[in-house]
Amino acid sequence: MNPYRNDFPILSTKTNGNDLVYFDNAATTQKPVSVIEAINKYYQEQNANPYRGLYGLSVESTNAYEEARQTVADFIGAKSSKEIIFTGNATGSLNLIANTYGRMALKEGDQVVAAISEHHSNILPWQQVTKEKGAVLSYLYLNASGHITEEEIEQKITGNTKIVAVAQVSNVLGTINPVESIIKKAHEVGAVVVLDCAQSIPHYQVNVQELDADFIVFSGHKMLGPMGIGVLYGKENLLNEMPPFLTGGEMIEYVSEQEATFAPLPNKFEAGTPNVGGAVGLKAAINYIQKVGYDNIKKIEDELTDYALTKMKEVPHITIYGETDITKERCGVISFNVDDVHPHDTASILDADGIAIRAGHHCAQPLMHYMKVAATCRASFYFYNTKEEIDIFINSLKKVRRWLGYGD
Amino acid sequence: MNPYRNDFPILSTKTNGNDLVYFDNAATTQKPVSVIEAINKYYQEQNANPYRGLYGLSVESTNAYEEARQTVADFIGAKSSKEIIFTGNATGSLNLIANTYGRMALKEGDQVVAAISEHHSNILPWQQVTKEKGAVLSYLYLNASGHITEEEIEQKITGNTKIVAVAQVSNVLGTINPVESIIKKAHEVGAVVVLDCAQSIPHYQVNVQELDADFIVFSGHKMLGPMGIGVLYGKENLLNEMPPFLTGGEMIEYVSEQEATFAPLPNKFEAGTPNVGGAVGLKAAINYIQKVGYDNIKKIEDELTDYALTKMKEVPHITIYGETDITKERCGVISFNVDDVHPHDTASILDADGIAIRAGHHCAQPLMHYMKVAATCRASFYFYNTKEEIDIFINSLKKVRRWLGYGD
Amino acid sequence: MGIEQIYNEILTEHTTSNRNKHHIENPTHVCKGVNPSCGDEIELEIREKDGNIEDAAFTGVGCAISQASASIMIDLIKGKPVEEAMKLAKTFFGMIKHEITDEEQLEVLEDAIVLKDIGHMPARVKCAVLGWHTLEDVVGKEK
Amino acid sequence: MGIEQIYNEILTEHTTSNRNKHHIENPTHVCKGVNPSCGDEIELEIREKDGNIEDAAFTGVGCAISQASASIMIDLIKGKPVEEAMKLAKTFFGMIKHEITDEEQLEVLEDAIVLKDIGHMPARVKCAVLGWHTLEDVVGKEK
Ligand SMILES: Cc1ncc(COP(=O)(O)O)c(C=O)c1O
Ligand SMILES: Cc1ncc(COP(=O)(O)O)c(C=O)c1O
Fold first, then answer.
1. Does C2 lie at the interface with B, CB-CB under 8 angstroms?
2. What ipTM was estimated for this complex?
3. What is the pLDDT of residues C66-102, one digit of tens each?
4. How far is B174 from B177, CA to CA, in rounded Å?
5. What average pLDDT score do residues B212-227 get?
6. What is the distance between the alpha carbons of residues D28 and D55, in angstroms, rounded to a whole number?
7. Are residues A196 and A118 in contact, defined by beta-carbon separation less than 8 angstroms?
8. Which of B6-10, B319-323, D110-114 has the lowest mean pLDDT?
């Protein structure tokens, strides 16, 4: 039995009369009791508006918030907690970068390079800012197995490239992108790299200094934390150069009727009352991940993914997209389709058996167009999943075509 | 004994060895058990990424989120839940309006009118957008008792005025602004009104249709709800005209490599995974407020405020700013100073007795300049406060000058 | 009735037979209905004459539920007055929203009754109503 | 030591007497220190000669703690070599951060020792160090 499941109350619930099999971890993860209780405790014992008050409770709230920031900084190997900006989610972080650094750095003819497999949240903000600035948004395409090749990196990242925005792990194909090469090449041409770690940090150690990433973003809710809290890491010198994004309370120094000066990092980028409860929950989530350990997480997930890929290949009429070999830069996100069956039907039929998978474009329509599929099904695992769950999934998959009147 | 206190665990805690007297409710309110438990329950039983999944849990999460939206819509008398946009806080809502409606509507020479008593969050976004557009930001000033007079409204809101941004209740002085007159005059000259209800909705019924407000904003955390969730209400036709603000997942219809079309309301303005847990908490908070009842809240708070004002006037060497008569458009926010004592010292000395008040500029530096004070102390009440707490506060206040070496 | 019943013979018959999935001659009305969140797309073609739906068919891609629902709808409306087709649409929406539950009232929907319980799968309601909404758009707007 | 002790005679003496709050003649260094979140502002004036602080005083507004701390600092540094003043500043910061707790080591801080426990009131630490940070800015930068 998986020793972590007991920490996640929702995993013991039923759905449609069956035990829940939660395979939509790339969309959001479930929360351990320790995270839920950390939020509880904050509201029951420490809640106050941070920074603003001189009284005990406000100091406690400030400390709770800043400890969470320090925990995040240590977790990703940032030089200083000043480099950690709390946002609402990864999307909020990406919008912040595009609207501040993007607007500041891009001129007519400059280039932003993204992977064709990016999530909409790492595409739309760049569409907006490149359009505004007369710059160009171009894409790194994938080879047949879903990987970005070295040649593609060499060709696409050029002297005009000012920003490279790329996910470390694709939320559709589960491919691990060659971010070291991308960062190296980007820095050679003088571009900064925005690394979308939304799908990587729940599963892999991310060290911003080793990677030499200029910006990274991720969401709390995809790594055991609560919704409503996201992270933007930026190198201190870049964050210092950037103008603020949202303005208002907490992020100012002096305000007169017509002018304002802004607070130093990190407050400069955090307008309004912050989500302290969310930050405290994220800290508890990080602690939980550290307790389980990334090595352990990878071991469990690789085993699950390998098992699932093997079993799925044995079911007739199933197409798996992208890399199907667990040893080749891929993780536990599997996109697939059942022949002749719309992914929504597959998802509904699996749902009847209690299995939660996603079907659709996965917020990656450009990738769907590129792959020439309308939509896919996606199963995505986390360390609390089990082989038994994969067996249930496989059994249910086998029924899909028959339910729809196909002979096999 | 106040019957609500038992619902708020934090109110029974100690601070610096004394019972906590929490008088910083204008900064953030404490949370009843029902709110904390609603969040718990969401994460333990319903958590999933809403909208995206076809499976049971995602449908539950979507329902939970949309029910919260409907609850907010009903609470403020909106015509449709499509007019309710969830944001991170009131500051996020105000930035959204300034960056979309503001950028769209303002041209060179146009005017935005705010009250001099606005919170920085209702000033800075307008400073930014007026500067960008060559428009003018001008102010409604206050009379000696802290009120905006009809003459001031007549004079300042003119044919050039395109946007009037004003708080219903001042977070510094507790004055209730004449928003009916302001809205009437603004609409006469063809301007839209952005009503900052952050300080009013915790205490007074707000009905957007009766007020005929174009936009209103508020924060969950100031009305018993969790941090990380805020609301923007906008009239449907205005929201429809506006371009989106943050872009990314959930807010799109079609996305190609270079172009995107956007989802209908309300999703168009909610980029990325929303804070469902926060929305569920806000719904529970609204239910709690409705259970207590606004009439009851006003009765309790008016009594407390009247009592506090009366007692404070009896203490020598205290200056109260703004209106000091509870019957004259003011509520339970009291700004004051102890003669010759810096407000930070007053706050620290009160803190030693367990009393949480705020001291500083209250994110309203322009008002401080206008009133010619560097900073003030602020005590702000909610319905769970008591006269006994006010007695403790008054006793502590009496000690302040002596602690600092003044004879009386 | 659960999902197993919804995906029953009728549905599968309608989706796999493709009986109503083709172009028609001289359509008087053509209208596209889309479901952006799913990628479902239906193009409905109708030939109307003297207030009657002489012929109807659809093309497009989508899930079994949107395709079957559209196909069942076409069986139902072909040869009927436009007005009656509009009434059927109202009844269909009423059934899906569980506002009409009276069995006798629903009888007019014939095969479409199988979609009655799609309301229990809220995520799929959009699929079931796509064809009917397109019908409203295509002929309903004129009045 | 709690807040009652911090607001004790020394503090109140220093804040109400205004002993060191004035301008000096021919200052060689003038520097403003501010604490934006509080509105505390201190302008430190120093006359340095041959590496010694001949005279020092401050003007400005602020809370009792920032004012008293600045006043106590001036009592301490007046007449001392700049180098020693810098050392005192290091010791003061060490005391506030509770990195230096050895009583003997702290003795050099004399009256300033009363601020030892300000670390328990984190919101007020900025007030206590404002004068000392300004001192570092004013004479420390040159080296
Ligand atoms: C009147 C007013 N407007 C806006 C705000 C900003 O709210 P928040 O910090 O939750 O964004 C506040 C509270 O700080 C306020 O009092
Ligand atoms: C790769 C990637 N980037 C960005 C996001 C956006 O995250 P969020 O919706 O939490 O803002 C997601 C998740 O949906 C993702 O998978």
1. no
2. 0.94
3. 999 999 999 999 999 999 999 999 999 999 989 999 9
4. 9
5. 98
6. 10
7. yes
8. D110-114
CA–CA dist C136, A54 (Å, integer):
63
Residue B37's Cβ-count burial label (10 Å; 0-12, 13-18, 19+) is middle
Does the Cβ of A194 fall within 6 Å of ligand 2? no
Q: Which residues contact B134 (CB under 8 A, 6 or more apart)?
A: B107, B108, B109
Q: Which of A363, A365, A378, A382 to mutate to test the pocket of ligand 2 (most atoms within 8 A of CB)?
A: A363
Element (H, E) at A90: helix A90-97
Residue A89: which residues within 8 A CB-CB, separation 6 or more?
A219, A220, A221, A227, A228, A229, A230, B272, B273
**What is the arithmetic mean of pLDDT over B384-390?**
98
Residue D44 has a CB neighbour count (10 Å cut-off) of 27
Cα B350 to Cα B355: distance, rounded to the nearest angstrom: 5
For residue range D99-137, what is the model confidence (pLDDT) as tens digits?
999 999 999 999 899 898 888 788 889 899 999 999 998
pLDDT range class, residue D143, cuts 50, 70, 90: very low
Q: Answer yes or no: are the C-beta atoms of A183 and A163 closer than 8 Å.
A: no
Contact D63 B344 (CB under 8 A): yes
pLDDT of residue A399: 93
Q: Are strands B215-219 and B192-196 parallel, antiparallel or unpaired?
A: parallel
The pairing of strands A111-115 and A161-167 is parallel
Structure tokens at D60: 């400005």
pLDDT at site C141: 62
Chains B and C share 3 or more Cβ pairs within 8 Å: yes
Interior angle at CA A214, CA A213 and CA A219, nearest 5: 80
- Among residues C47, C49, C68, the alpha carbon closest in space to that of C114 is found at C68
By most ligand atoms within 8 Å of CB, the mutation choice from A89, A94, A171, A204 for ligand 2 is A171
**Residue B404: Cβ within 10 Å count:** 22
Measured distance CA(B212)–CA(A394) in Å, rounded:
56
- Ligand lying nearest the CA atom of residue B166: 1
Q: Please, which residues have CB within 8 angstroms of residue A62's CB and are 6 or more apart in sequence? A: A50, A51, D122, D123
Among candidate residues A152, A159, A156, A155, the one with its CA nearest the CA of residue A189: A159
The residues of chain A scoring below 70 in pLDDT are: none
**Any CB–CB contact under 8 A between D64 and chain A?**
no
Question: Which residue, chain included where needed, has tokens 């923007």?
Answer: B232
For tokens 């009652």, the residue is D4
**Mean model confidence pLDDT for chain C:** 89
The answer to whether B377 is a known catalytic residue is no
Question: In the numeric block, which tokens belong to residue B101?
Answer: 């409606």
Chain B interface disruption, residue of D38, D40, D61, most B CBs within 10 A = D38
| Closest chain D C-alpha to B291 CA, distance in angstroms | 37
**Residues in the ligand 1 pocket, defined by CB under 6 Å:** A 249, 272-273; B 89-91, 119, 121-122, 167, 171, 196, 198-199, 219, 363
Cα–Cα dist C58/B117, whole Å: 62
Closest CA to B382 of B206, B227, B199: B199
Contact D49, D60 (CB under 8 A): no
Strand ordering across the sheet containing B318-320: B318-320, B333-338, B376-380, B358-360
How far out from the chain centre does Cα B59 lie? Answer: 31
How far is CA B275 from each of CA A65, B68, B128, B189, rounded to the nearest angstrom? 18, 11, 27, 38
Question: Can you give the length of chain C in residues?
Answer: 143
- Measured CA to CA, the distance from residue A274 to residue A255 in angstroms comes to 20
Whole-angstrom Cα distance, residue A399 to residue C107?
32
For chain B, what is the mean pLDDT?
97
